[in-house]
Input
Amino acid sequence: MNSALWTAGRRSWASCRSVSSRSFTGRSTSRWYSSTRPSFDEEASPVVKKEDKAELRKIASEFGRRRAAYNRQVSQLRREYMEEYQRHKQEDEALRDAEQEEAKRKRLERQRAKNERSVQNTMRQGELRRQTQLAFEDHLRVQQEKRDAKKELFTRAQQLLVNELEEEAPLWLTTPEEVEAAFTPEAEQLLWARPHGVLGVPNPSLDSHFWQYETHTWEMGKTYKTHQDILLEQCEEEVYHATNVDPEFWTPERVQAQEELERKAKLRANVRLEGRRALLKRQQQYLDEENETPEGEPPKPQPIPSLGVLGNVRAQEKEGAEVLFKDPTQFFIFDRDSSNSLSASSISTDESDLYSGPALGAPVDIRDPLRSDSPQGRVFPQAVGKMPKPDMRTEKEKKRQEREEKLWAAAQAQARSDMNEIDLAADEDADFGEPIDYDNNEDWDSDDEDWAKGLDPDLDSEIINLPRESRFREEDIEWVIESLENKAKSMENHVRNTVNSMEQEVRSRKDRRGSEETSEEVVGGPILDEETCKMLTGAGADAEKYEKLLQSLSEDQLLALFALEAERNVGSDEEGANLFEKIPNLSKEQLS
Output
């Protein structure tokens, strides 16, 4: 009975708890889930009787009353909790709103300060832009004034140039005929035969003095010229000079006048060079005296020297003239050759800074600072190569020398392997004897003995004392003659082949077209090819003159010229004038 009641009360309590839990949480869980299937207790318990139902109802009503009280307490607790929650929430919101207001106020204050700084910076930048604009406008005004002044100067210079050109305009050569008429043989000799030749006016331009300088380059090739090559070049230069320089035009009086003019120009250039050197030394002395620092003070920076000295030509010539009167040996070579024996201490000057030393005699030449003191009379020495002498040793001597060289090399290798750092340091301080004097070295392979062999020291002293680069033997002369003959034959063959080809071309054109227009085209076209023109120019002939002469010949005259040239190459040796005289119907202008 008690167990049944206890079981029924437990089941009703469990169902009430399940209902209460679902009503409180709003959800059901599997823990309080009850099914319609009877439990183990229900199956095991006996059937409740009717008299127990009243007791169960009482228990259920008590349980419902207690449950309602419990629910009322829980509801009251929830309301209190909700009120407390709402109060804390309002406090938190009020605190958060206060913090947000404080942050907003600080942000607005920072923004205000930033805006104030931005306004100040904007005003400052505006003032800077205004000042920059004013400075730029001032700069533009100054530069425009400079440009206007420079433009005015250029305009004046251009006007002066135009005026000079207008004065020279009647003397200009504007047509080919005028140019050909002006370039006469005499004019070509004046322009090309001598250095610094000028045709037309004595000073053609303001920068003509820059052309008085020359460059000097030392040939650094590994292959030296032999005596044969030097003699061949000298012969070719002499032939070129004889071909291009007209002896009838360049009379001794005219050559002497031109050489005197060149010596004056050379002396003036040397005086100017020495004056420039003296002015630069004086300027350096002034700078050193001005920047001299007392002892104990830091040195002053070296100032930049002025380059105005290099542009003052009159000051250079004046200073150079003073040096010339003080020491003429720097500019002239005298007949007594006392300049070599004079020292700087023996040269004395009087109160007027004039030379008052020993008598020097008459000047014989202008001193060249680059060539006068050179043994060969050149800016750079000319290295002359020579063929090695034939090896006259026997096979036994050659093998002995090879064996000695091998033994010496092995000994040196063994010595190097046995050396330590101390030995190497000692070798660095070792004394290898006096340095070699290359000017007075007698161990080199000299050919002075071979050159002096068979010559008398008294009668042939000039031949014996010739410089080594000017010693030419018979085999050298024979080689040069052979080379010149081969070159002449090569040129003759080239000219002969060119003439034959031109003759064949003329004949083929005549056979192909036989009209006058075709013949005029043949005559009017270029007859001499480019290689032939180069050879004629290299030989000193006027290629244009020959081209015009061949152009003026008719077809029959060209064929006659080719035939006569072929006969002259085969047999007779006639001069060119006689050859042209045999051409039929030649005018005097063509022959001249």
Q: What stands out?
A: The two ends are 173 Å apart (CA to CA). The longest helix spans residues 51-168.
